[in-house]
User: Fold these one by one.
Assistant:
Number 1:
Amino acid sequence: HKPWNNSAEESVNGLAGDPLASQSSSLKPPSEDPSGGESQPGTPLPLPGHSGLSIQEMVAMSPELDTYAITKKVKEVLTDNNLGQRLFGETILGLTQGSVSDLLARPKPWHKLSLKGREPFVRMQLWLQDPHSVEKLMDMKRLEKKGGQQQLKKARVVLGPEEKEALKKAYQQKPYPSPKTIEELASQLNLKTSTVINWFHNYRDFSANISDFDAGLNLCFYSRSRIRRELFIEEIQAAGGVGPGSEGGSPSLRGCKSGEGDSCDGTESEGTVETRQGLGIGLEDHRGTCKDQGMEVESEAGASNNSPAQLDCTTSGLAGPGSSCGQSGLGIFSLTEASSTSSASSTNIPSSGPARNPRDNNLRKKKAANLNNIIHRLEKAASKEDPSEWEF
DNA sequence: TGCAAGTCAATACC
DNA sequence: GGTATTGACTTGCA
């Protein structure tokens, strides 16, 4: 029942040669929603007023979109109109609340998205272009009835800090553990092997060979794509662009601030490494520890705000009106309002989000120290092959 | 078959 | 009650 499965039946019109360019006529009224008025993830409303092209075709033909500008605008509209992510996700995108939250908070750059991954952004863009988008969602909200019975819930495994640390340590040593290693880990941590496997899948972003990278990076962790996305956003923020910082703090900081040591991704993809270099965040100067990508990068990134032009816009996907780099797609998906605020920097945070007050700074320092401590122990442990010798 | 990307959905958090 | 996080799962591809 994936949204993408039936979305091919949705049609669009007047897009030949200029995909997504036409202003949509309107979404169908809620009463015409095939789902019967109660949208579910997987049954997004039909695309507004286009016929002849499936959503996949539209996505394939779409020029590059400024995913960050789109999500920023969507967040604004939802907030301004008191519309929730769940309603928006289920009605417009065919996604669940959590997915919407993730997309809105950590949009990946267009060029890093697969066709499937681009689809929600195309839907968002079309929704933004619909002059009646808000009122229709409001109607949906009014019509929405409380759902039926709660399904039997499956217990969720919640890994403890020690387990996470041990897994990260194991990952650092062996991103692709053998079944035997997985079993050993599962046994030692008292977890199911499937949990360990899933954790590695989730944490792993790519099978990087650390020797392929700057030697200075090889003490840092690999990460899954969602962590890498956070770094991308932080880079935007650091570059002085319209970053998530403008709405209350970097998600990646959230990851590292949590003291869990997430987001410690030293083996970034080529693009991000370029970006970091472009930002003047000296990799060699911060080699070997995750602190440079957690707490401390923030201040350094902030210090780099003065040179946003150095940012590789093609890599970051930040290019747009007002940026120093051109972007092909924005002529069609113009969101100049959002992009024009690119002067926002990490120091320009609205009061709605976690402010960078002295108290926060102290907290950060405290957590940075804690993180360094963890790193120290991990580095120490890294020299020991036998997991039983790991010290946590 | 293994991996990466994308998403779901339980639950923590505010 | 809405949003963020994250373990689990699905899908598509090489």
Number 2:
Amino acid sequence: VTATNCILQDVQVHLVNREMWHAFSNLGTEMIITRIGRRLFPTLEISLSGLDSDGRYIIKADITAADNHRYKYIPASGWVPVQNGNHAVITSHNSNVSFGTYEHPDSPNTGKFWMKANSISFKKMKLSNDKSCKTKGCIILNSMRKYQPRIHIMRIDAPNLGSRIAVFPETRFFAVTSYQNVQVTKLKIQNNPFAKAFRDSNSQLT
Amino acid sequence: VTATNCILQDVQVHLVNREMWHAFSNLGTEMIITRIGRRLFPTLEISLSGLDSDGRYIIKADITAADNHRYKYIPASGWVPVQNGNHAVITSHNSNVSFGTYEHPDSPNTGKFWMKANSISFKKMKLSNDKSCKTKGCIILNSMRKYQPRIHIMRIDAPNLGSRIAVFPETRFFAVTSYQNVQVTKLKIQNNPFAKAFRDSNSQLT
DNA sequence: ATGTTTCCACCTAGGTGAAAACTT
DNA sequence: AAGTTTTCACCTAGGTGGAAACAT
């Protein structure tokens, strides 16, 4: 095992639906968390290159704290950290601590399999605020905090072949129990097929 | 590795919905095969015991020929082998040759995981008659032939730990492109939730 | 004649945000 | 006041057998 293998140096991770994420990120992305678990929208969708065709890999997503603040949403100002007197409240939320992991259901699989996919979708991944939530693929978060998803590529066809973590800043989001920014709600309705019922016929996208 | 391990001697495989299969088997079970793939009904549903809690296992289903005949359905007689003059036509269909394998989507997993499940369901497994069918989990069969599903339990946490094959004769079925025996159709409609639209309100089950 | 393919109405299953009720 | 939970109409997504068209 060489140092090169240990970090999977040649592996490239691409965020397929980067433009969609970017549109939400500009507004401050919000994701609903519920007792039974709710999907993310947009979905995490990646593609991979630079894997060893014959190697075996597990692909996972996890979610870390983006910072250690608690936030509130003020319509005129947007998302601002909660202040206690003159300084921001620092909580025990540490970045690099994972709040839960979702293994892609096609894992484990060969490098060839992962690379030939146009899109590796984490659409069944769900978010909850209930610690006792047993829904499959559910990650437990706290409301009114900011989170950062990550993608893990782990080679497993021999011990200690290493892994790689990819972080896309445009996928950061606030966990909420109901939407705060009405612009976010509108963008969800316009783009999520399951929210089609709420689309205003005057402002339909082609 | 002992001889005992090699055949996973203590492993018990139980057909959870045996009664449903039996009801169909009495009539001569038929399964529709289509270009895009069609689920089996009843679904293969098993439970397992006698696994090593800490071992890792792959659970698969596959389908073999039940015999080497071609069949036709005669309403007055039922399913009879096609005759050529006075003797049955013998084809190249050999039992013990698998026509396709469907790996349970939770594979691989621990003995503990598999044993704690009340029902390990192969409901996403599909049957097709189109060799070029790329639908995930699709097994290619020939129409008007008799088939025998099998369950495979393979231990994989070390090389050559062996495997076990379980065969339930009540799960034998005829592959068809449209139902032949109207009694089979009726039993499907009464028991498959997706066929509820065709239930006669006079003969509903409670 | 016999078997196959395509299309369809009618279901199951489950993912949306809205709104009202609830909690603290 | 601020945030959470529940319920709901309205969608997407996809599994049924029937019937008509098609193939050989």
